[in-house]
Amino acid sequence: MVKDKYMFPRDKNAAKQRALTLSSELNKYITSNEFNTGRFYYAENKDSSYDLKNDYPSGYSHGSIRFKYYDLNEGFTEEDMLEDLKKFLELFNELASKVTKTSYDSLVNSIDEIQEDSEIEEIRTAQKDKTLKEVEAPKGIIPKYKKGVSKTTKNDSEIEKSNKENKLTGKVGEKLALNYFNELIDNKIDEDKKEQFRNILNDNPGSQHGHGYDLVAFDPTNTDKAVEKFIEIKTSTSSSIEEPFFMSLNEMFAMKEYKQKYLILRIFNVSGKEPQFYFIDPYANYSEFKDVDDLIDKVFNVEAIQYKVFGEK
């Protein structure tokens, strides 16, 4: 049997998540019954250290669809096991009749997309009715610049990791940002000015993608006057305030073009109990910049990890 390189990645955590997602999707084809669903643990109390200590095959446990525990203390008969085996065969035939080779291959090929959708929904559910806690923006963080070719593939996948996280957390971050600005209007703005602030706030941030920012809002530090600001939202599941984020060249040009109007809203720990945020105002200490290079040099500590090459000189 030839193993699909996408279905069986070298990364153990990625392989585990794919197996769990696939078993969950296949489980949807089977009618509900009394058997357990999801990952099978050799210890009924779900102590994974028991599995590892005894060197039980964890891949098998991640890929299980239905299973049943037998309690040795309560006792069971051979007839009980035979009856359960008959039911398992019925479930297998039910699954086989509903999932053809073609549909299974299609499911395997789309497993990453299914997994991402599931993770997005988990984050959205976790953040329902939660608010952001503001913290002071970190300063003076010096990156550890690369001095040679990476010894592992991990360092070379930073952009890919960032792109995936943007997809997972982007919409969640935008929703949290909108909630934040709406709460400012509700709680900090005088009644006779609320409509003025709401008229600035864009409740459809997706329409601005490609412009170099995610959201049109107002200056959160000025509750007396509605000053329009263009907000670029950078969201992360990391709980570290020092976790770096990525800015595109288009976003940098937007930052340069919209003088005094551009803010970066950094949200982190978005899947945690208390998501936190801070703002970066590139014009806090400058009125303008000569060009993008001047902006980057004066405002940020950065590392260039990718170049667009047009050819030889």
> Ranges with pLDDT <50 over ≥5 residues?
1-8
CA-atom Rg in angstroms: 26 Å
Task: Calculate the terminal CA-CA distance, rounded to whole Å.
Answer: 49 Å
Q: Indicate the proportion of strand residues.
A: 5-15%
Total number of beta strands: 7
Instruction: Report on the biggest sheet.
Output: 5 strands, mixed
Number of helices: 10
Name the strands of the widest sheet in spatial order.
3-7-6-5-4
- Structural class designation: alpha/beta
- Helical residue percent? 40-55%
Descriptive overview:
The protein is of the alpha/beta class. The chain folds into 2 domains: 12-109, no CATH class; 132-299, no CATH class. The protein has helices at 12-27, 48-53, 58-62, 78-98, 101-109, 111-126, 158-188, 194-200, 249-257, 292-299, and strands spanning 36-37, 66-67, 133-134, 215-218, 228-235, 262-268, 276-280. Helix 1 (12-27) packs across helix 6 (111-126) and helix 6 runs parallel beside helix 7. Residues 173-280 form the Protein NO VEIN C-terminal domain.
Q: What's this model, at a glance?
A:
Residues 173-280 form the Protein NO VEIN C-terminal domain. With 313 residues, the protein is α/β, with parallel strands linked by helices.
